[in-house]
Amino acid sequence: MRYCLLILSALVLHPALAQDNPARPALQNDSIPPREKRLPPNVPPGRAEAAITIKDYKIITQERDTTYLDTTLTIQKEYRYNYLRRDDFELMPFSNVGQPYNRLGVDLNRESLFPRMGARARHYNYMEASDIRYYNVATPMTDLFFKTTFEQGQLLDAMLTSNFSRRLNVSIAFKGFRSLGKYQEDEVQSGNFRATANYVTRDGRYRFLAHVAAQDIQGQENGGLLNAPDQFESGNPDFQDRSRIDVRFSNVQNELNGKRYFLDHEFRLLGQGADSIPGMGNLFLRHRFSYETKWYQYSQNNNTTEYFGDLLVTPVRDQAYLKTFDNRFGVGLENRWLGRLEGYITIFDYTYFFNSVLQTGTGTIPNQLPGQQLVSGAAWKKSFGPLTLEADGGLGLGGDLTDSYLDASVTLPLGTSLELHAGIHHSARKPDFNFLLYQSDYLNYNWDNSGTFENEQVQSLFGEVRSEWLGSLRAQLSSTDNYSFFRSEADADQLAAGEEQAFVRPFQEAGRITHLRVKYQKEFQLGKWALNNTLLYQEVDQDAAVLNVPRLVTRNTLYFSSDVFKKAMFLQTGITFRYFTSYYMDAYNPLLGDFYVQDREEFGGFPMLDFFINARIRQTRIYLKAEHFNSSFSGNNYYSAPDYPYRDFVIRFGLVWNFFS
User: Among 65, 80, 323, 532, which has the highest number of CB atoms less than 10 A from its own CB?
Assistant: First the structure.
């Protein structure tokens, strides 16, 4: 974005976002300096005697779980300081920011009740309804995230929130970036706009969360390296400038665009409606509404290569659309004996469609999958002393997308430093829509499996131990039937001719797949030094190699933390080591915007070393990192997917800044 620095300057200089008074250096265990006791009208009654603290800046999830803003500098903040703004330990990024991520870890549990559109490789930066955050703040607050990218671009995520009254909060945010990349035809850009509102009536009986989101993610596709052994892996100095390396495509891009309107509101018929639970209980009505339109497009202008097989028409313009209308109506009761119990009915209307009907020699490919799914369900949560039980499940009453689902868990703290958590998961639903129906200007990329593909069934059992002294250990055993995946049907001669992607199609695995994952996290501290460790072990039992993951993934960070300059700055610096064992890494298909299974070549087994220096001054966290600094001496064998290299050594910097007024 060409105007990122201008926006940054405006936010810094704007008087509404400036600090009221210079503050003394804050301690690391506090997030904002002490504020004056002179409070604005939106501070709740009874707080007039106390100063504003960081706990007055609340962050609320879709399920109304509440935390508060944290401006401290920790190693977890370092792990989340990236394009996605979340820990990407189980993901392998491509060479440029905003491109797809290959998966290193798999969790088979289904987060969505219904099938998604597809093009999952392009959805990592697409914010779903559960990703949106709402706020309740004592004074206007701004969160500013900035980070450099790769050649001619920046990444900026800016959010401003304010309470207009004690009960009404609004926020507006925009995340935008552009990055040219190091290779040819590698440019990516996106924009994510969000606006939210959070309201509670004076008596607490009625409340709502609402948001509007508009998102657009565009990326050029170069098809990978055309001659990787000679131009990349050989280390030829003539190609140290990556823009000189030959790539497969030119004038090809894909785009993901979506708009969503969301409202979740609740009215209490009986009871106080506040957070307390009266003995006679609270009877409440709840309604959740979401309307979303989304489309994915693959366009190929003056490139007539038949890399994807025979062409029907040129230029290529493949576009898939999905419109969903989701209504959930619930009634619930909450009291100290029953806990919180809610029964609900979900009506899910959908239309997945293309712009034409295709007649082929083998039949007709329809242009749409319309329908309505009716699901009944119930959610329950109850605490018995320190023991907490939760369950959420349902059955499909009409339609063929979702058959059943269940999530149940138990949490038991054992003292102040040990907690046990265990649960089960079950789901049975159709695979994503692009497995069921797809149309393309390439002949081989047209299929209709809506009448033949079965429900994917997943059952999981997990247990977790969280200990202050021993760390966190989580084990999950999952099994899945009718696992859906993409794979190429090309034979040996077609593979030798480079025609693998011309024969990529969707399949379902007939046999059962069992997946075990064990994840361990622990930090060891000695004075101002610390060693933070995260390890993931995975094992897959399957008849055919269709679910491929590395057996071991590890990340280890040795770092030093200390106050400097008479405690005016908190400094954190160290080295992060990342590694995963070699495996048959999934290949990327730019036409589908998805990954497919390949068993020709293993990738992985190379180290990735990052050096970072981070600092905190008041509410500002400054980040400087030398990424993959060992690339120049450890060999050019680092790939994120077949024909798609991981990024070279690069120095990047940025900051996260919170303003309070």
Answer: 532
> Please, what is the Cα angle at 95 between 91 and 97, to 5 degrees?
75
Whole-structure pTM value:
0.89
Nearest to 146 by CA among 116, 170, 175: 175
CA 370 to chain centre: 28
- The tokens of 384 are what? 């018995």
Distance between CA atoms of residues 211 and 197, nearest Å: 6
Which residues partner with 358 through β-bridges? 365
Among positive and negative, which fits the CA dihedral 301, 302, 304, 307?
Answer: negative
DSSP 545-581: S-S---SEEEEEEEEEEEEETTTTEEEEEEEEEEEE-
Q: What is the largest CA-CA distance in the chain?
A: 80
Cα distance between residue 245 and residue 184, in whole Å: 8
For 229, the token pair is 């052994």
For residues 187 and 189, give the distance between their C-alpha atoms in angstroms, rounded to a whole number. Answer: 7
Q: How far apart are CA 83 and CA 367, in angstroms?
A: 35
CA distance 122 to 94: 12
Model pLDDT for residues 580-603, shown as the tens digit of each residue = 999 999 999 999 999 999 999 999
Single-letter code of the amino acid located at 500: E
Is residue 55 left, alpha or beta, with left meaning phi > 0 and alpha meaning psi from -120 to 50?
A: alpha
d(CA 67, CA 60): 7
Are 170 and 150 spatial neighbours (Cβ–Cβ below 8 Å)?
A: no
CA distances from 285 to 206, 260, 266, 395 (A): 10, 23, 6, 21
Sign of the C-alpha dihedral, residues 49, 51, 55, 61?
A: positive
What DSSP state is assigned to residue 231?
I
pLDDT digits (tens, 9 = 90+) for 463-510: 999 998 999 999 999 999 999 999 999 999 999 888 999 999 999 999
Q: Bridge-partner residues for 299, per DSSP? A: 253, 317
